[in-house]
Specification:
17% strand; Beta-Lactamase; 5-stranded mixed β-sheet; 470 residues; 5-stranded antiparallel β-sheet; Heat Shock Protein 90
Length: 470
Amino acid sequence: MRFTLLSKHLLVYLFVAILGFAGVNYFCFRIDYNQIINQEASDMYRQAVTIASEYSGNVSETDQLEKAKIEKILSSTASLSNDRIVFVKNDGEITLDTDYLSCGQTHYYKISHFNPSDFGNDHKIVSNFYGYLKEDYLITYAPIVNSYVVNGYVLVTRSKSSIVDRVYTVFNTNYYTLMLMLILNLSFIILYTTNVHRPITQLSNVISEYGKGNFSYKTKIKYNDEFRLLASSLEYMADKINNLDEFQQAFLSNISHDFRSPLTSIKGYLEAIEDGTIPPEMTNKYINIILFETDRLTKLTNNILLLNELDPSSVKLELSDFDINSLIKHTLETFEGRCKKRHIKFDLTFEAEKEEVHADKVKIGQVIYNLIDNAIKFSKDNSQIYISVSETTDKARISIKDTGCGISKESIDKIFNRFYKSDTSRGRDKKGSGLGLAIVKEIVNAHGENIDVISTEGVGTEFVFTLKLV
């Protein structure tokens, strides 16, 4: 049998309630009973001592008039305190009993086995007084002393049932307290169910739905607390996983397209050469096309491998100190042929002759190469590309700016995504794989730095990143 968290709390609550009632009925009753018995006995003993001191003579030996007067006073005293006053001699003969006085009875009993030591040191006992009383009474006694001789004892008795009634009157307060505590605990369970158990159940349902692949499932937690924060984190995670799934589908679609297109061309041209469809004099032309497509495949494969190596959790940087200005100049030399054909010039602005930075030289060289390659790709013929290096506190700021077509607002947030290529890029340069800027971002982020892009359509685009100065 499966117990939920709520059912466990209810079982604990029920157990505590039963245990509480049992504890109140036994322990609290005993505590209240003993406390009241001691209090009543103390009051009764004081009364017995007072009576014993006032009537130190032997009541049975006084004259009838005086005896009647004493009996009347004691009867009134007993009636007011709801007690029963008994005078008993040393031999156990009872000489006065206020209960019998009220009935007009004058004949009393003699208790043959009366022994004052039965009362103990605290001068009280709960009993029926050797069977003389019809029920148990709380009995206290005080000796009647005359000329240093004990002539008898004054017994002040009070019905145990009346004491128990008083105990219950006080004891009922414990029930009220217990009921109040149980109501408060029940209120806590209700609040717990509303504010803790229900959100936990909803979160459990959310996780179950996410486990089934339903990442669009949303929680219904309204309160702005830790549960809402946890739910928001789960929803954010689910959204990321959902986007990752979409990214994987897009990744497979893009990589399939980028591999299939050149492979189809290579296969088609090779088959045409083999079956003689292409005349011998045109063979070199189509071999060059095949080499061109092969170069595309090689570059795409290398970029994919490079991106895999740049996984933030496993990337390893070979950090060193080098001159970023010199690295930029050497990189520009590789583009000299392309730029001459399109009459593109570079405008270099270096704040210092040497700008020493601490980074991975090979990977930063890849960043600069990709950014310059991207700038050339989108620049118009007979235009300029501006490259500058400046210092900002402890950073070197590298800027590469072209005066090309710019990037649309819809595309600017996507340009660092893998395999993302704008239509302009596809039309202008079929060798583009859509991985160059993704590689740039991964390398810069691996260095703990950021790269920003500023672009205006029809004006140009500027990429800016920073590196740590030596």
